[in-house]
Design a protein that fits this description.
alpha+beta; 20% strand; Uridine Diphospho-n-acetylenolpyruvylglucosamine Reductase, domain 3; five-stranded antiparallel beta sheet; 35% helix; 21 strands; single chain; Alpha-Beta Plaits
């Protein structure tokens, strides 16, 4: 049975991490009660927020909480979109924001980063050492611990994989305070169960990640972005397997409708290369030489034109590439004010076009705008369920009485469509609170029971991020 946080427990926490690192002021605590999920009705104010600065302090906090059965929810940059770091009732938030140190091991092309290092800070440290971190999950303020906890993905997964592919080792703290180190700086191991990969993507329900050993690569010499307009979104998506069939693996192949691109241009006051057609592909290529880059670009352009592309626009300077990527990366920010939820459904990539057709059917059926973009080559489709219509180039907000029921119906139908196509409800955002009701739609009961057993083995008293993934 969970206990309430009392004055005695708060004093113990202050002794463990220092008086200034235990926050109890209601105004400050409000910031620790939510992530970036758009509807704040899932928010909860914690009893306290604790800001440790070392692994030993994390261990001390968990030991105290486990003894008293106080719920603990780890928090990084709070950039999640499914309520994953919303605290349990009566529980505390363990914020890793002060654990922000990173050390580059250039000899092994590795970095050792604490959980509170931001994506921006991590990429900068790697680049300063002349190295490259391929995954780019999107939110620059996301933190290493949170990205490990959700197995963050991003647009570059088609060529370079997701966060899991770059984690070589972890330092984690178990609920009773024990510190373990699954994995390490080596590449190969057949030594026991792979606890490291079990922890990656576990959303803070098994243990608290305090440090990660992360693989880096040499910098790619030549990057180029191609923007390719088509008459329809389905036509753009159907060009993707043709590109891959030519044995070309781009860094990323993104798709987006011109409606969202135009809105984001105005939001950022930046310019997209073309307004032709209704849907665009963004193809990012890397190569060792200019000659190889020219060859790859030529093949991609030929394939796209054969598939009905209206033109091919090339951005081959850092400035042009930066402007294009800024627009693509800011679509969510540009329309989130009228967004109910941003989905991250994952389907086999051959099913993306059919899934998008289903989205268009539901848009017509329910009368809500469902702007859709995503990672065409890895099957990750991002659909915004909006509390608005889109007419004449403008977003028309709707009252809750008009959108709430429709949004719920659309959500259920899209997840059902994902399951029917062999997909899952989350590619990269995680389950948290928001997607929990739909886990049983895509996972067999036996899988869920195994997960419950794993949770019990790691966290016998159930104090870590309770109520997430499953009850």
């Amino acid at each position: 049975m969970m206990e309430h946080v009392d004055a005695g427990f708060l004093d113990e926490l202050r002794a463990a991490v220092g008086p200034g690192n235990v926050l109890t002021d209601p105004e400050k605590l409000a910031d620790y009660g939510h992530d970036e999920f758009s509807l704040r009705d899932i928010s909860r104010v914690p009893a306290a927020a604790v800001l440790p600065a070392t692994t030993d302090e994390v261990s001390a906090v968990l030991r105290l909480a486990d003894a008293r059965r106080v719920p603990v929810t780890a928090r990084g940059g709070a950039t999640g979109l499914c309520g994953g770091c919303v605290p349990a009732p009566g529980g505390i938030v363990l914020s890793l924001e002060k654990m922000d140190r990173v050390v580059i091991d250039a000899a092994n092309q590795l970095a050792v980063a604490e959980a509170g290092v931001t994506l921006t800070g991590f990429v900068a440290a790697a680049e300063e050492a002349g190295l490259f971190f391929p995954p780019h999950p999107g939110a620059e303020s996301a933190m290493i611990g949170g990205m490990v906890a959700t197995n963050a993905g991003g647009s570059r997964a088609v060529k370079y994989g997701v966060f899991r592919n770059y984690i070589r080792g972890l330092e984690v703290v178990l609920p009773g305070g024990a510190v373990i180190h699954p994995g390490g700086k080596y590449l190969k191991s057949s030594t026991g169960y792979n606890l490291m990969n079990l922890i990656i993507g576990s959303e803070g329900t098994l243990c608290i990640v305090t440090r990660a050993i992360i693989q880096l690569l040499a910098q790619p010499p030549v990057l180029r972005s191609l923007v390719v307009p088509f008459d329809t979104l389905e036509q753009a998506i159907e060009a993707v397997p043709k590109i891959l069939a030519r044995q070309i693996v781009p860094v990323a192949i993104e798709f987006a409708g011109l409606d969202t691109i135009a809105i984001t241009e105005k939001f950022l006051n930046k310019r997209w290369p073309t307004h032709a057609g209704t849907a665009h592909l963004l193809v990012i290529l890397d190569a060792a030489t200019d000659e190889e880059q020219d060859r790859l670009s030529q093949v991609v352009a030929e394939v796209c034109l054969e598939q009905g592309a209206l033109d091919v626009f090339i951005a081959d300077t850092p400035g042009k590439q930066s402007e294009i990527l800024a627009i693509r990366s800011s679509i969510y920010d540009a329309i989130k004010a009228e967004s109910v939820e941003l989905l991250d459904i994952s389907v086999p990539r051959a099913e993306v076009a059919a899934h998008v057709r289903k989205i268009r059917e539901l848009e017509e059926k329910h009368g809500l705008w469902l702007p859709t973009f995503g990672h065409a080559a890895d099957g990750n489709v991002h659909t915004h369920i909006m509390k608005a219509r889109y007419e004449g180039g403008k977003i028309i907000p709707l009252p809750e009485s008009e959108w709430r029921g429709r949004a719920d119906a659309i959500l259920a139908e899209l997840y059902q469509d994902a399951r029917d196509r062999g997909g899952v409800v989350s590619a990269e955002h995680g389950i948290g609170i928001v997607k929990k009701p739909y886990v049983s739609l895509v996972l067999e009961p036996a899988q869920i029971e195994l997960m419950r057993g794993i949770k019990k083995a790691f966290d016998p008293n159930g104090i870590l991020n309770p109520g997430k993934i499953f009850d």
